[in-house]
Structure of Exopolysaccharide biosynthesis protein:
Amino acid sequence: MPKTKVLLILESQGGSRRHVVDLIHGLDPARFEVTLIYGTSRMDKQFIEGLDDLARYARLIPCDHLVRPISPKDELAALKQVRCVIREIRPDVVHCHSSKAGIIGRLAAKLEHVPKVFYTPHAYSFQAPEFGGKKRVVFVGLERWFSRHATTCTFNVSAGERDAALAEKLDAPSKFDVIVNGIPDEPVPSRAQARAALGLPADGKVVGVTARMVEQKDPMTFARIAAAVTAADPTVTFVYIGDGPLEQDVHEYLNAAGGDVAERVRLLGYREDADAVVSAFDAYLLTSLYEGMPYSLIEALRAGVPVVTTDVTGNNEVVRPGVNGELFPAGDAEAGAAAVRRVLAEPPTREAVRGSYLDRFTADRMVDAIAAHYQGLGRDGGRNGGKSTR
């Protein structure tokens, strides 16, 4: 039986990059022949360092014109390159990831008459609070047209993301399938090992996060929660792993908070081992304003660490209050501090937290669901609705 030829298209990095890399690693090479077109303007360190290994599993084609900013010149050049690749390899499937690749890739696939075209938004652009008014109308219009005219099926990483698509009437419900992110069940360091690696005390409670210091992640609410909790209990240490444009603002807030708050909240910057050292924490605190399906929460569950996070799309599909963590309203530092205190006082068992990861968020489940669609066995084929076959 001939292999199914799959062309993946990726511009963004971060969670989208991780999703695509895990997908490439997970697809059976006896059944699939994979090519990846990737943008070069925003490659992160992990992607760059993993290129040689990734080349063992897929043909890699860089595209310098696949960029995030709106640039008609670059977009036309990227479209031309993607069309040339499609003509060369004649894929059975084109699968586009995030907004920019979603527009260029799906248009190229439509113009070249590719049989199956799939799209994973990784959170729609119109869901971002900073996009309102005319911009939001444009984004919704683009998503609606491409879904209806150039997409076989959209894979949403959360039910909330799918519900947002249906609320905007992007397309018929049958054109969407929820396939949540998954990660491999790899071993992580012990709590003692992770704390030693981070330079943290072996005893005492530690609340931490691994996230960029950007508006979406709302690090100032993290800082306010940390100030409230440590003021009442100086034995608790807060840790923020990640950098970004709001780092200085957080530093200034903590220094102005008084007492020993600045000493109890450690800003450790970017770390390559962030997904592993999460095992140092007694609770994981993510204060996002919006999400698709954040990998960091899944990494915490894999390590057996309970999660305290905002009650927004994606987050509220990972966290089951009373089972693996707690939820609180976005931007509400007082409620967040109370939720942290509850989890530290009565933490769920590590087995219950890990069990919630194993039930839904393994890489095998994610890859199997997507592979079924590629081969016509998902919702389109009417056999298993995109569910895991393992």
In short: Residues 380-390 have pLDDT under 50 and may be disordered. The first helix runs from residue 15 to 26. The chain has two domains: 4-183+362-374, 191-360. The domain at 4-183+362-374 is CATH 3.40.50.2000 (Rossmann fold).
